[in-house]
Design a protein that fits this description.
single chain, alpha/beta, 9 helices, NAD(P)-bd_dom_sf
Length: about 300
């Protein structure tokens, strides 16, 4: 099987967003069984505590922690980054959290809620953790995307518009942004010992991704996913493979599907677009001078 690895990662620190349920939970459990210190992150503390207990019980690894974050709040993401930066090291960051069918509204940060939860929050968290990841190298960043990206667009003048996107194009635009961000991240982290790869889990059964969809759409979507989707355990094993497999230690800038390198979206080859996405994202999340490691690296 392509996803099989016996690799142990004793002593490594792994952060998993969206780690309280679904494939994020399964990935966290898998990595805990390999000896890692695992920190699961999501919005709901009750679910996080239950997930922590279940992972400890299933793996016997007591070194499982949790932290809360609201990806729809830049302040909350900054608070999380500050907490995580107190760790002695971070060796793997798995950006797995995401949601579909969120209300079409602006957040208190004046960003489109769908874009903020699914992209801007992830961009900010990753950016703020890069110095720690570099200091902990070799380390890995793993970004979750999906096939909806082929229905998305990147329009910097309108990516926070209300009323422009439907459920599919809103999700697709955020996933496309994550994918292009992954490409630019790989470019900017060359020769640092930090790799950046994206994964597409196809469609996965028994996750909360459909929870915000209206009734009939949710019912039809769930029927479709239950027919063709893989289990959350299989998807979690794929993510864990990308995090732990020794043969992937230097692989970077790739898209993986079913643990194999997969043909990527054509826009990842547009270097001007990925560069502008990076700069516009820094503006959107209001990166401050004291947060900007790119400035300090070039001094």
């Amino acid at each position: 099987m392509a996803c099989d690895t016996t690799a142990k990662i004793n002593g490594k620190v792994v952060v998993v967003t969206g780690g309280s349920s679904g494939m994020g939970f399964e990935a966290a459990k898998n990595l805990a069984s390999r000896g890692a210190r695992v920190i699961i992150v999501s919005r709901n503390e009750t679910k996080l505590k239950a997930a922590q207990d279940q992972i400890i019980e299933a793996t016997g690894n007591q070194n499982v922690a949790y932290k809360t974050v609201d990806l729809g709040s830049l302040t909350s993401v900054r608070n999380l980054a500050n907490e995580l930066n107190t760790e002695a090291q971070i060796n793997v960051l798995i950006n797995n959290a995401g949601a579909a069918g969120l209300p079409d509204i602006l957040t208190s940060d004046n960003l489109n809620l769908n874009m903020q939860v699914n992209y801007f929050g992830t961009f900010l968290l990753t950016f703020l953790l890069v110095p720690k990841l570099k200091a902990s190298a070799p380390s890995r960043i793993i970004n979750g995307i999906g096939g909806a990206m082929y229905f998305g667009e990147i329009n910097f003048d309108h990516w926070n518009d209300i009323g422009r996107y439907n459920t599919l194009t809103a999700l697709g635009s955020s996933e496309l942004a994550i994918n292009l961000f992954n490409t630019e991240l790989d470019i900017r982290l060359k020769h640092t010992g930090v790799t950046a790869n994206a994964y597409d889990p196809y469609v996965v059964r028994d996750t909360g991704i459909l929870d915000n969809l209206p009734g009939i759409v949710k019912t039809i979507s769930r029927f479709f996913i239950n027919r063709i989707g893989q289990s959350k355990e299989e998807a979690g094993r794929e993510i864990a493979y990308l995090a732990a497999a020794p043969e992937l230690e230097s692989a970077s800038g790739n898209l993986y599907k079913f643990c194999r390198e997969h043909k990527n979206h054509w826009l990842v080859n547009d270097n001007e677009l990925t560069k502008r996405l990076w700069e516009e994202s820094k503006k959107a999340v209001k990166i401050q001078d004291n947060e900007d490691w790119e400035v300090s690296d070039n001094v």
